Amino acid sequence: MTKSSASTEAVDDYLKAILELSGPADARVTSNALAAHLSIRAASVTGMLQKLAALETPFVLYEKHRGVRLSPAGRRRALEVIRHHRLLERFLHDVLDYPWDEVHEEAERLEHYISERLEDRIAARLGHPGHDPHGHPIPAKNGAVAERTEVELSRWPCGVPGTISSVSDRDPAALREMKRLGLVPGTSVLIEPGARTGSVLVRVAGQTPTRLAPEIAAGVLIGEGS
Amino acid sequence: MTKSSASTEAVDDYLKAILELSGPADARVTSNALAAHLSIRAASVTGMLQKLAALETPFVLYEKHRGVRLSPAGRRRALEVIRHHRLLERFLHDVLDYPWDEVHEEAERLEHYISERLEDRIAARLGHPGHDPHGHPIPAKNGAVAERTEVELSRWPCGVPGTISSVSDRDPAALREMKRLGLVPGTSVLIEPGARTGSVLVRVAGQTPTRLAPEIAAGVLIGEGS
DNA sequence: CGCTTGATTTAGTCATGCCTAAATTTGCAG
DNA sequence: CTGCAAATTTAGGCATGACTAAATCAAGCG
Known about the structure:
alpha+beta, Arc Repressor Mutant, subunit A, DNA-binding
C-alpha cells in the first residue's frame, strides 16, 4: 500500500533543500549534501528519500548511491513552500514592521501551515510582489520563477557598476551588517580591486569602500545596473 | 528522566480542550469528555494525560479514574494558545478581509506556530483588541480574561432586551446563518415567547422574529444591553 | 586489477501520538 | 449489597522521522 501524497514539515524541508542544492541545472543531490544542509544524519536522509520516491505520486526520483532529483510534483511543492516563505517575509516586513533580519525565522516556521487561501490573501494585500525583502524572487502560483542572471559578489568584475540583487537570509548577523553598510537589494555598487581570499572590497556610490568578510560576501548576488 | 516542557500541537489541543470543558468552576474533566471533544479515542487520552502529568513541570493534575484539571502551567499555556487563536481571527478578519465564518479554521492551525514576537506585533497592529470577530474575549498576555456574565440565548428571559455577546465559531454554516439574520455580536434583540425544544424565537430591533434551530441557538451568548 | 577510503545504505532504537482489544474500576440500580 | 454497564486504563501496534552502528558500494590510486 504505497502512501498517497500529503506533505509534512519534514517533507517540505527536504524538498526545499533538494531544490536549493540542485541549482538551476537540476543536478542530482547527494544524501550527504542534504544531511549537511538539513543538519541531520545521512542515514536519516536515505530513509526519507526512499519514502519520498515510493509515494503514489513520488516527490523525488531516487537511485541509490546516485543521489536524487525532484519529480515534477516535488518541484511544484518545493516552489509552493518557497512562495509561502517569501510572501510571508514580505508580509511580516511590510505589514507588521518586522526588521529584515528577523523575518526569516518566523517565515520558516509558518510557511508549512498557511492555506492556499491565506497565501492568496497575503499576495493580494501586498499587490503580488515579485521579491522578498532580501531580494529573492517570489515564485508565481504556477511555479514560474523570475530568471536569475545575477552572480556572486566575488565574481563581479572590478570597476563595473552593479546593483545588489539579493542577500542570503540565513544569517541574521550578516543581514544586520549589510544593512549597516547600506548594502540592501537595489543599491548600486562598485567592486574595488583588493586582496582576495573570498573577501571583497565594495564601494557604495560616493562612500569609502568596505571589505566584506567571505561568509558575508558569499551570500550576496549582484547584477547589472548603474 | 521526566521530560521537560516544550509543547506540541497535540498538547496545545489537549490543554485548550481541558480549559474549555472544565468551565469557569475549573471542574475536573473526564477522559471521555476529552476524547469526544478532540475526536480521538479515550485510550489515547489516558496515555496523553499520563504524560502531561508526568512532565518536569506538569501541565495537568491527574488522578486515574477521576479526570484531570489544568496545573497553573497548563492553564497559562492554554490561555496563550487561545490568545493566539483569537488574535489571529481578529487579524485575518480585519487586516486580510477574511469572512468571519472562515477565520476559525485558519487560526486553529496557525495558533500553535506563531512566536511571542508575532503575537505582539499582531496585537499592536490591531490596537490590542478585547474580542475576536465572534465576540469571544481575547485573554491578555498575563492570562487575564474579561469576566463573562452572559448566558445562553435559550436562558434569556422573554421580553427583556439583550445584546448578542458572542457566537460559537465551531460551525461555519451556523455563522453564515447568523450573519444572514443580522445576529452578530453587539446586536440588540428581544426573545419572543414560543414553543421551546431548545429553539428560540429572536427579534432583532424592528424586524420580524426568527426561529433559531437549537444547534445554532446553543452557541449564542447574550448579555445585558439595550 | 585490487585496495583503501569516504559516501551511502541497512538494521535496529527511540519518542511522539494515535489505534484496537482486552482488562479493570466505578457507580448506580435493584 | 450485588452485579451489570459504562467509563477508564492497560497492553500491544502502527506510522513518522530522527539516531547509532554496522555493512556495503564506488572511485581513484598504485
